[in-house]
Design brief:
- The complex is a heterodimer of chains A (about 725) and B (about 220).
- Chain A has 23 helices and 30 strands.
- In chain A, the strands form 8 sheets. In chain A, strands 5-4-18-17-16-6-7 form a 7-stranded mixed sheet, sandwiched between helices. In chain A, strands 24-26-25-30-23-27 form a 6-stranded mixed sheet.
- Chain A is α/β, with parallel strands linked by helices.
- Chain A is about 30% helix and about 20% strand.
- In chain A, about 65% of the residues are buried.
- By secondary structure, chain B is of the alpha+beta class.
- Chain B folds into 2 domains: about 5-170, Alpha-Beta Plaits; about 180-220, no CATH class.
- Chain B has a 5-stranded mixed sheet. Chain B has a two-stranded antiparallel ribbon with strand order 2-3. Chain B has a two-stranded antiparallel ribbon with strand order 4-5.
- In chain B, a hairpin with an 8-residue loop joins β2 and β3 (about 50).
- The longest helix of chain B has 7 residues, at about 140-150.
- Chain B is globular, with a radius of gyration of 20 Å.
- Classes of the chains: A alpha/beta (about 725), B alpha+beta (about 220).
Chain lengths: ~725, ~220
């Protein structure tokens, strides 16, 4: 039983998060032994950075101005990222659970216990009773390896990853519309666009480096439309801001398209020659007049018309979206409704013309391509397609019948632990206690596990529940590749080796495979061996890396897939000439009517609750909550409330407010701002325990992508008494 | 010395503080940022602005320093107070029209942006402008700025009767040459509209008042 054996305070005392403010060797000027050209370990932009290394320690950084994507630019997370090295919380040894926390163990002991538990659970309850969870912060090599480990060694169907909380709605929509899952354009097309729609993407805080691309478009005369329930930093100076009510995105997209059709701003020739099903969309959007759309979306009719006037007749355009429209029980439908605007304009597959989701995680793109998803095999292949199964089974030299089928998605895995269907779990690069909605249920599920193993570099809040913790590697302690948000595969360089007895993640999997007698399937000496196998496995698949090598990637500062042969330069822009990836080469429109969120506001819970990120923190905060200067910038979650709502509730800035939903409650300080809709409150989600925004969110899933509805549910907000002197609080 | 110039455009600032964090990396003052970020009024807007030293031609901070601790290099870079000289009086903090210098209690010394002198003097770009994700801080050629930006780079500021010229440029509206900080400049009779008419004293500034706005005072004139 993976129950906690220490109090939250004791875990924090022993394992952090403690705050590191100082580089190794202190703040003195030091000459590095070497400068390593690599990439940031955080978001999907994957900025180039040079790490200063001295005596196997990262002592600082120097901007890497030659790398074309960010040209030396970095956000505060990138500047401070090296503070995670030489961190007091760093796990230096494997840990095993005791009756009071953990004790350090040898690798043999930790690995033997893990293998024994897996054998026991699979022997008793069946192979699928043991699940694997991966993450999109891992290299392509590790995601490929994890997928192969699951299918070849454990032979479990239940492997999925934290991208299920991030990119999957857009991924599914892209496959449905275009027949391929990748952003259509390199970021360098953004400054060439004359109209830009940013739908549900807080670019300034979540992908800060892309801000400059947007501003360069503005310098070139672009009109910028921002659609968001909050005036985010990118919205402050946009040409048109549409304050959409949470969960109403489809209606807004349909409303804009209705005006475009009425005014004749449709590229009829493109629609005729390169798409299907526009007639169905035309029929559907007839009723979405500006007045009708205003009623649903809370966006003024004039704003809807203005958006169509900016987008419709534009010479060039880009439409970008992110989690704001994707984190919904209709996330896929939201994306497809916005894709309709792009297809109707005919502006895609040309310089300055296109579309894309801005992937959130470092390897958000590559992490969803090489087989760590429950429904996928390497090369973006479909685990349910007989010819795809055969290709990979032959490639791995196993019988096709031994290859597991489609398994459960990440949230469904947690649900299946809750019901007892899954009894054991091995997790890497994933902190579900912070990142999965309805955290009270996540905790209860983890407590039911008969065995829980974690591979991590810091003891995350999820790892508190572990039976065995395997001390793994930070990004800079390993090497490999990641594929950025624009589909560019870039090279991560090894900067330092793991400290203490911590080990490189992929070698841990090799050791586990060896203990199962499957070492012959994993004959890798270095990371590039895995990459060579990964690229060969992708040959001819929907996601083709076959023509990539480490040296080619380095020489070109990244290669965009598809890259089928060694002499192929890669494909920065997709769909040139209006050719899409469906068998007939056409793109598809999708007609989706508006439907309300899984949990809409009502008399009992009258306020919309939405969540997101702040610029100084990253995802579940496992790394960034340990970096002092980043924590100081935004130390704890605040609840953004509009003054009109705050006035009605008698709340002032700094008051402690209790936000409750049907699933839980959260007490945080109020931040009264005019930059959020008065019917909505916002809390960022990077924190754990009692400060977790995901205590409140709704684990209702999109029927196609299985992404949870982080961006809208119903809440109540009330003022509570200030914390008393004894620090315990006396909230009623 | 680097031929590039510094340009600030607060309209591009996203408030991320990458500049402040990166400033800490400079070898001469590692661990201590010499610039800061102003949050204008979070209750009404996410507007923020980075505050780096403007490097005035005739720096008020240096002129008011009783210890002669603030020096200007030949290239016009106004440096932090010299540790052996600074007496921590904060005259400079009060005198600076841009709110740049900060007195650091822990080390009893005024520290301010020196335009990454250790970097720019050897041809590197300043840390803050290199990392700034939105180019709210930009260090490069004037030609590049004039070619790519719609806003105009100005480096002349009028505070009351005092005109301050700076090494660092501020991006502003295309038809503006200097920035005035006193509204009377923009009123009838203000310098911008030519000549000084009948005058009334407001805060030490002479100008003509609009009788519709200030009937009482105008009648008294």
């Amino acid at each position: 039983m993976a129950t906690l054996t220490l109090s939250e305070k004791e875990y924090i005392e022993k394992f952090g998060p403690h705050l590191n403010y100082t580089p190794p060797g202190g703040w003195t000027a030091q000459q590095p032994d070497k400068l390593i050209k690599t990439h940031c370990c955080f978001c999907g932009v994957q900025c180039g950075i040079q790490l200063k290394v001295k005596e196997n320690k990262v002592i600082g950084f120097e901007p890497w101005e030659e790398f074309p994507v960010n040209q030396g630019k970095l956000c505060p997370k990138g500047v401070q990222r090296y503070m995670q090295n030489e961190h007091p919380d760093r796990l230096l040894n494997p840990l095993v659970r005791t009756s009071r926390g953990f004790q350090e163990a040898t690798w043999d002991d930790a690995l033997d216990r893990t293998v024994e538990a897996i054998r026991h659970i699979q022997g008793r309850y069946g192979r699928n009773a043991f699940a694997l969870l991966g993450g999109a912060s891992m290299t392509n090599e590790k995601t490929y390896l994890l997928g192969k480990f699951a299918r070849v060694v454990l032979q479990t169907a239940n492997i999925d990853y934290n991208g299920r909380l991030c990119m999957v709605s857009a991924a599914a929509a892209n496959r449905m519309a275009f027949g391929v899952d990748r952003v259509a354009n390199p970021w360098s097309d953004i400054p060439l666009a004359k109209a830009i729609i940013l739908a549900g993407t807080n670019v300034g805080e979540c992908f800060p480096i892309l801000t400059d691309y947007i501003w360069r478009a503005r310098d070139n005369g672009a009109k910028i439309v921002v659609i968001d329930p909050r005036i985010t930093p990118i919205a402050r100076t946009c040409d048109l801001f549409l304050p959409v009510k949470p969960g109403r995105d489809i209606a807004l997209a349909n409303g804009i398209l209705q005006v475009m059709i009425e005014r004749g701003w449709i590229d009829r020739q493109f629609v005729e020659n390169h798409t299907h099903d526009f007639d169905k969309v035309c029929e559907l959007v007839k009723k979405f007049t500006p007045a009708f759309t205003e009623k649903i979306t809370g966006v003024p009719a004039a704003g809807i018309v203005r958006a169509a006037e900016i987008w419709g007749p534009a010479e060039t355009s880009m439409l970008l979206h992110a989690r704001g429209i994707e984190h919904h029980t209709k996330g896929v439908e939201n994306c497809l409704s916005y894709i309709n605007l792009v297809l109707a304009s005919g502006r895609i597959g040309k310089p300055g013309c296109g579309y894309g989701t801005i992937t959130g995680q470092g390897n958000g793109q590559g992490g969803r391509e090489h087989g760590q998803r429950c429904n996928q095999l390497p090369g973006g292949r479909d685990i349910e397609k007989p010819e795809h199964r055969k290709f990979i089974a032959d490639f791995w030299k196993i019988a096709e019948s031994e290859l597991p089928g489609k398994g459960l998605t990440a949230c469904e895995i947690i649900n299946a632990i809750e019901t007892g269907e899954i009894r054991g779990l091995l997790s890497i690069s994933f902190n579900p206690m912070v990142s999965i909605p309805d955290a009270n249920r996540t905790r209860a599920a983890l407590e039911k596990l008969e065995f829980f193993g974690c591979i991590d570099f810091f003891l995350s809040e999820t790892a508190h529940h572990a039976d065995v913790v395997l001390a793994g590697s930070l990004q800079e302690e390993d090497e490999g590749t990641v594929t950025t948000g624009e589909g560019r595969c870039v090279r991560l360089r090894n900067s330092v080796s793991p400290p203490g007895n911590a080990r490189v993640d992929w070698q841990i999997f090799l050791d586990l495979a060896r203990r199962f007698g499957k070492e012959s399937y994993f004959p890798y000496v270095e990371a590039e061996d895995i990459f060579r196998e990964l690229t060969a496995a992708s040959k001819g698949g929907p996601v083709d890396y076959n023509g990539m090598t480490y040296s080619k990637i380095e020489k070109n500062m990244g290669i965009f897939w598809p890259c089928p042969t060694l002499d192929h330069p890669g494909t920065p822009r997709l769909f040139e000439g209006g050719t899409f990836f469906h068998p007939d080469g056409r793109a598809k429109f999708h007609a989706y009517d508006y439907r309300p969120p899984a949990e809409d506001v009502d008399v009992e819970y009258p306020i919309f609750y939405t969540t997101g990120r702040v610029v100084s923190q990253y995802l579940s905060g496992t790394q960034t909550r340990r970096i002092g200067a980043l924590v100081d910038q935004y130390p704890e979650p605040l609840c953004e409330i509009h003054p009109v709502l705050a006035g009605r509730l008698g709340i002032k800035t700094g008051d402690r407010v209790k936000v409750s939903t049907r699933r839980g409650e959260l007490v945080v300080p109020a931040q009264i701002v005019k930059t959020i809709r008065p019917d909505t409150v916002f809390v960022p989600y990077h924190w754990a325990g009692k400060k977790s925004a995901n205590l409140l969110t709704n684990r209702a899933l999109d029927p196609i992508s299985k992404i949870p509805e982080f961006k809208v549910c119903a809440c109540r907000v009330e003022k509570v008494a200030p914390v008393s002197d004894n620090g315990k609080g006396n909230a009623k | 010395m680097n031929e590039s110039e510094f340009f600030i455009d607060p309209s591009r600032c996203i408030g991320c503080q990458a500049c402040v964090h990166a400033c800490m990396e400079c070898d001469t003052h590692r661990g201590r940022p010499m610039i800061h970020l102003e949050v204008i009024d979070r209750a009404t807007s996410p507007q923020t602005t980075p505050v780096i030293c403007m490097h005035c031609e005739d720096p008020a901070c240096a002129r008011v320093c009783p210890a002669d601790a603030i020096k200007q290099t030949d290239e016009g870079v106004v440096q932090s107070a010299l540790k052996p000289r600074c007496i921590g009086c904060s005259n400079c903090v009060l005198a600076c029209p841009f709110g740049v210098p900060r007195y650091v209690v822990a080390i009893d010394q005024m520290m301010k942006c020196d335009m990454c002198y250790d970097r720019t003097s050897v041809g590197k770009n300043p840390m803050c402008a290199t990392v700034c994700p939105s180019e709210a801080l930009y260090f490069g050629s004037r030609e590049h700025i004039e070619r790519t930006r719609q806003e105009k780079a100005i480096n002349e500021f009028r505070f009351g009767r005092q005109t301050v010229r700076t090494k660092v440029n501020l991006m502003t509206a295309p038809d503006v040459d200097t920035l005035d900080f006193d509204i009377v400049r923009f009123m009838p009779g203000g310098e911008g509209t030519g000549g000084i008419g009948n005058t009334t004293l407001i805060n030490g500034q002479t100008c003509e008042l609009d009788p519709l706005l200030f009937p009482a005072q105008s009648a008294a004139v």
